[in-house]
Amino acid sequence: MIETALESLRMSPRYRDRIAHIEVLPAREPRFGELGTPLSAGIAHYLNSRHIRLYSHQCQAVEALRAGRNVILCTPTASGKTLGFDLPVFETLESDRQATALFVYPTKALSNDQLKVFKDMERATGIRADAAVYDGDTPVSRRGRIREMSRIIVTNPHELHHVLPWHSKWERFFRNLRYVVFDEAHRYRGVFGSNVAFVIRRLRRIARFYGASPRFVLSTATLANPQEFGEKLVGLPFEVISEDGSPRGGKTFLFYNPFFDGVGALSPHQETRDLFLYFVKRGLQTLCFTASRRMAELIALWSKEATAAGSVLAEQIAAYRAGYLPRERREIEDALKRGLLTGVTSTNALEVGIDIGSLDCVIISGYPGTVLATWQQAGRSGRRNRDALAVLVAFQNPLDQYLMKHPESFFGKPHEQAIIDLANPYILSGQLLCAVAEMPFDVPGEEIFPAVRAGEMLGELAAEGLVKETPHGWVYTGRGRPVEAVGLDHIARDAYRITCDGVLLETMDTGQAYREAHLGAVLLHQGESHVVRRFDAENHLVEVERKDVDYYTQAIKNVDLEILGTRATRRLGQMAVHLGELEVTELTLGYKVIQNDQVVAREELDLPPLHFRTTGLWFTIPGELRRALYDRGRNFGGALHALEHAMIAILPFEVMCDRWDIGGLSTPGHPGTGEPTIFLYDGYEGGIGLTEKAQGLMERVTRLTLELIRDCPCELGCPACILSPKCGNDNRPMDKQGALLLLEGMLEKMRQ
Ligand SMILES: [Zn+2]
Ligand SMILES: [Zn+2]
Fold this sequence. Notes:
The chain folds into 4 domains: 2-26 and 248-411, Rossmann fold; 41-241, Rossmann fold (3-Layer(aba) Sandwich), CATH 3.40.50.300; 425-485, Arc Repressor Mutant, subunit A; 557-592 and 606-751, no CATH class. It is 37% helix and 23% strand. It is built from 26 helices and 27 strands. The strands form 5 sheets. The chain has a 7-stranded mixed sheet with strand order 1-9-14-13-10-12-11, sandwiched between helices. Helix 18 packs across helix 19 (451-463) and helix 23 crosses helix 25. The radius of gyration is 27 Å and the shape is globular. The model has no long low-confidence stretch (mean pLDDT 92). Bound molecules: zinc ion (2 copies). One zinc ion binds at residues 641, 645, 724, 727, 729.
């Protein structure tokens, strides 16, 4: 069925030109492994009764953990990673009657899923673990018993952060702690990941106090830097296991570009609807991922309308979203599994941990922002040795369009780097305060915190009256518990609180609040759109209202910056790329209202300028290149400006982040350098490691920027290459050809 559907799609004049690439991923036989020492009778019984034979990577993980090493499992979704660490954990629980293990999951759905697995393993193996979830939903009446009895505790990073100060109540658990598992660890990147890295160090410190030194296990989706990432996150050496031995069915991956001609006759949403209907009408069970809940509902509605009203097919189409009641969601999940539904549209609410069985086809409407998330969504089709189809529908923005023209970068070697930053002074000081409050802090003995910075920082905290030095080390002298003031999702202590009907939706750093939650902004939260009704800069409070709107907003800002100091200079041939501290002033001027890809209104905003210190990189343009541009009659300022926009747009492809996380400035003359200069900086107070990483990847980033601009079919520049929605200068001046000359010249200079 899939083959015929695909064949007629390729032949059809309606679709043919829009197919940018077809990748056939052949089916693969399983590779099994053998263990050096067999598993105990109970554990073997669990596996045999479920007809499970271990794959090579699972055996590798078991052996590495048995040998006492820390392990990162870095294999695709649904490759059976969990068994690789569940087995050695149960083996240890069996041989050591006191041993305990901590499992940390990022979402409730995943925690509950895993709890079921543990219960099942306990029954089948006869090993008592009293596995339990301990999180915000755990009733107070059950908490004491879990702390005292459970040998496997499943929690999330936020709960762990709040539990650590109460470690004396957890003495039994921490004293016997043998394993700590962080599943879906790739989620711990950026601000959140950098905070979690310190929560892990606090946990290690407490475990050590009680005489335990647990093994760490991380499981992640495919990354370019698993080893570096794991070692930064935990602070210990890791063994990486990435050779996947699990079987898979054949899959065809199709890249579909509505903007193949640079124009796009239909919107990507209309294209998505047509593809969705195309597959559903052919009886292929299809799941369509959209960027927002509104699009999920519209595509389902349009599709129903396009089929004969009241027809059987119309009844087989539904939308799925986070806002539904659990019962409604379960009904849809169930109907999908039983084949009663043929087509479902969904936001990423359905991403991981929710079982809907295996589907024939997945449509991803708009690149989800990372290669990793794209594979996870595509993994929803064809799990059980069945052939399947995945389609990525590109939007008209630089990353989507780059992928359409460079599919090899998607199917080739992983290139996405997960970044955490242990040097952000604001994150460090908040987490240090938490650590000091948990137990007295003795600087030379605390090798798990960066010692030099910690020493300096304690001095500063002492001046604020928050800590003091005693013969037993530094102790906390502030009021209230620091964990209450330190959130894991943001950097500064005075973060903005975003509330809806009095309920806290999320917290944001000031910069992010100015960009995404200003008055009138449309804010997406779990695919649901909200409109900002009140922005209270004094109390750092934002009130939003749940509302379905058919437009979105983009803030426009102006940037000024000053170089405070240079930390490192990297020479690349005749070019030099500097990294250092910057003092940035961002002025949010207003915002654009965008409907159907058209700017329909511009609103002004009256916000005070935002000043912050951060890390950034910069490079100057050699005089020779500037003269070459003038000689050819190009607009030099426009070329710099276009280069800056394109470089910011392509950076998330290498350094996992959002385009909005990086700021930039280009100028034909900057007082700090006296020359034409391009700056890129981390949009977070204190920096978050993004441009630091980018400095090391500069040749590659320059090449990708060149390809992005060169391969775009437009003549003068468009939203798919050099135009930026957040430009404070209204994308003027712009010189696409000039930027190309500049980039070619830079690459040549880097080689000299
Ligand atoms: Zn273009
Ligand atoms: Zn601009």
